[in-house]
Amino acid sequence: KTKPSMSMLSVHRMARNTRSAIMLLLILGMALKTYGQEQGGQMYTDYKHNVFEGASVLERFSQLDTSKFTPEQKSFVERCKQGDPNSIYAAARDVGKENSVLLGGKQDVEYSLALYSFAADELDHPSSQAKLGELFELGKPPYVQRSTSVALHYYQKAGEHGHHSSLYNAGRILARGMTEEDIAAVQSGEARSDRFVQVDLIGAMAYLQAAATLHIHYPEDSDESLVPLSIEAHGVVSANAAHADFTLRQVADAFVFGTLSEVNDEADVLWRNAVDHLLKFNETFVATDGRVQDTVQMKGAAKYLRDIVQQHSDSLSSLQLYLVLDNLNDMLGPLAGLDNSYVSDAAKYALQLASTELCIGKYANTESDPACFNGAISAAVSYYRRAGDEDGALESLDLGKSHPYAATHWDTVLQTPRVYHEGITSKPWWDISQFTAPSTLKALYENPASKSQILKELESVINLQEGSLRMEEVIIDVDGAASSTAIDTTGGLQRIFTPYIGVRTADAATAQEGAGGWSEFGPLFDGVNWSRERCAVVPSICNALREDKSLCSERKISSDNAAFVNSQKKTTIWELCGSGTVVTILRLRPGTSILPHCGTTNARLIMHFPLIGSDGVKFVVGDETVMNYGGGDGHPIVFDDSFEHHVYHEGTEDRFVVLAVLGHPDLM
Questions:
Q1: What was the pLDDT predicted at 203?
Q2: 69 Rama class: left (phi>0) / alpha (psi -120 to 50) / beta
């Protein structure tokens, strides 16, 4: 057992120095979420020390009629009296049978359970612990009520001794947690209602890793039939772990447990150094609400992660390689936004990430699907284009088109959204007269009274306290985990940060002040609800668009476009709009550039309605450029953000626009 504050990597290092591989796995596994021991409910104590006809568990052996026993049987009973764990385990097996030798042909299930419990809890006997794990997992009415948490407890206890099937079973339970069947059994009273066993993929990998490699270190204790099962299960859990919401500290542990081979010493040091830089970067980033991107830590992490890929990729497991490349891309994206010298590396390693087994297997067909492959290969195209490497862009385009299932069958490097639906009309710019939202806002803006009111409300936004962090529907905690913490709806402008969209501000002070160069007051509308707090600040805009039928949220999924989105699924706003934001207000400060990138999907269009500050704004979509929004403040534009687009603010005033996500006319 380790102290909770002790680094898992430090324990890993300590154990490897002693070459005690199996103890490494057990130390780390038990130091993680050990639901059976720390949260797994009461141990089975109903029969421990119970009195049977006036005798304790062991004293009852003295009451047996041994007159007809053979000398060997009498010797066996004596060993039981003396508390020999193996003999007590054998006795438990015997008295639980219908034709018990010890009980003269009778059966006593309660006494059998008492003996198992005594051997497991008092004598720490692994086979007895494994047996109780089995009994509690399956149940044995009316004697044993099912309990997943108690079963896990006993499997873990036996696993500490290297009991092979228990290592496998503990990993299996941690990988799945409480199943629907388990929950139903609790609700019906068939199973005990003790602590809930949650999914713990890292703990599962730890136990399955031990089960899969036990034959290497302790062949005398291993069951050969369990080895292929454990290897297969470890592979399945590792694949799921690649896309789990882990903190950085958990990612560090996943690297240790995500392999069935011993980690190379040099790769181990590089990984620990990289994690240290990642944690320091994250801590500063969160503490400053994104104002400070510690480039020293970013560059340090990128260097160590790049060294691992370049020097040790052949020795890494699929999960390890994925974790290294995923975190490397998370650093190279922002670095490429700040420094052009990193763009080529960002392109190279985005392509390499997209080429990994685990990333290829995590692809998207609809906007709400998690999509490692789609995101990485789309980013690779954009980075190669920014680097001026058209061959690299075309290679990435071809890889996207070659995926048999992903929605990445693009036609051009100028349009590579994360989710691309074929057969939809595609053009960079659209006529605003096709949509009611821009026309409605334009009419309001052209009326002097309503324009004055809109600008007065905008001034209220500007005067609110600004500076918190907006992160694509999530807040990031200090450990680097996505949190479900609600986004603050009472403050002002929020800084926008996404790893794959580069934002570059010429003036360092502007980049760090308040909400930075690119910020948002929103969402006003998330596709389901209008924000009461924010709309109280800008009621004119909210009221004008509240019933608008051109918004993407008005699109209906029908059998006519079932090939576009599976009509049998519950449609989400992400599937309709490719975003959890439908209407919002954005600010772009002078000297700030939104670097070239493609949006989420070609199933939507984007409206910008410039309220103030449009002079000097250069807007490029595909290979077509519009200056000053084509007509200045109050002149809306509608564009397809699935095309590569970028914005340069070369003016002198803050630009404020109303952004609305519109439904594509082909799908409305």
A1: 93
A2: beta
What is the spatial distance between Cα 550 and Cα 437, in angstroms, rounded to a whole number? 6
Is it the case that residue 2 has pLDDT exceeding 60?
A: no
| pLDDT tens-digit map of 214-237 | 999 888 888 999 999 999 999 999
Q: Which residue has the tokens 């500076």?
A: 467
> Is the pLDDT reported for residue 42 higher than 50?
no
Distance CA 182, CA 295 (A): 48
Q: Which whole number is the average pLDDT over 457-479?
A: 65
Closest CA to 546 of 534, 564, 556, 561: 534
**Token pair for 305:** 């992660």
- Interstrand relation of 494-496 and 429-430 (parallel, antiparallel or unpaired): unpaired
CA separation for the pair 501, 519 (Å, rounded): 13
Least confident of 27-41, 58-72, 122-136, 267-281: 27-41
- 414-465 per-position pLDDT tens digit: 999 999 999 999 999 999 999 999 999 999 999 999 999 999 999 999 999 8
Amino acid letter, residue 444: L
* Alpha carbon distance 67, 57 (integer Å): 21
Distance (Å) of CA 84 to CA 51, 73, 123, 332:
20, 14, 9, 61
d(CA 646, CA 374): 20
Q: What is the pLDDT of residue 555?
A: 75
pLDDT of residue 647 exceeding 80, the answer is yes
SS3 track for 379-415 = HHHHHHHHCCCHHHHHHHHHHHHHCCCCCCCCCECCE
> According to the model, what pLDDT value does residue 487 have?
45
CA angle 663, 665, 666 (to 5 degrees): 115
Give the tokens for residue 193: 């209602």
- Percentages helix, strand, coil for the chain, rounded to the nearest 5? 50, 15, 35
In this structure, the strands spanning 468-470 and 494-496 are parallel
Residue 427 has what pLDDT? 95
Q: What is the pLDDT of residue 191?
A: 74
Extract long-range pairs of 629-634: CB within 8 Å, 24+ residues apart: 633/445, 634/442, 634/445, 634/446, 634/451, 634/609, 634/610
pLDDT of residue 413 exceeding 90, the answer is: yes
Alpha helices in 410-531 (DSSP H): 436-446, 448-463, 508-512
Residue 614 pLDDT: 96
Q: Do residues 629 and 420 lie in contact, with contact meaning Cβ atoms separated by under 8 Å?
A: no
CA R_g for the chain: 31
Extract the tokens encoding 355: 């080429």
Whether pLDDT at 564 is above 60? no
pLDDT band at 17 (very low <50, low <70, confident <90, very high): very low
Torsion of CA 491, 497, 498, 503, to 10 degrees: 140
H/E stretch holding 505 reads strand 503-505
Whether the CB-CB separation of 549 and 437 falls below 8 Å is answered with no
C-alpha to C-alpha distances, 264 to 29, 256, 588, nearest whole angstrom: 20, 11, 47
Q: Compute CA 275 distance to the chain's CA centroid, rounded to the nearest angstrom.
A: 17
Angle between helices 21-31 and 248-257 (to 10 degrees): 150
- The CA distance from 286 to 51, in Å, is 59
Rounded to 5°, angle at Cα 528 from 527 and 534: 80
- Model pLDDT, residue 28: 44
Residues 328 and 309 sit within 8 Å (Cβ to Cβ): yes
Residues 200, 152: Cα–Cα separation, whole Å = 12
605 neighbors 639 (Cβ within 8 angstroms): yes
Enumerate the β-bridge partners of residue 619.
Answer: 626, 647
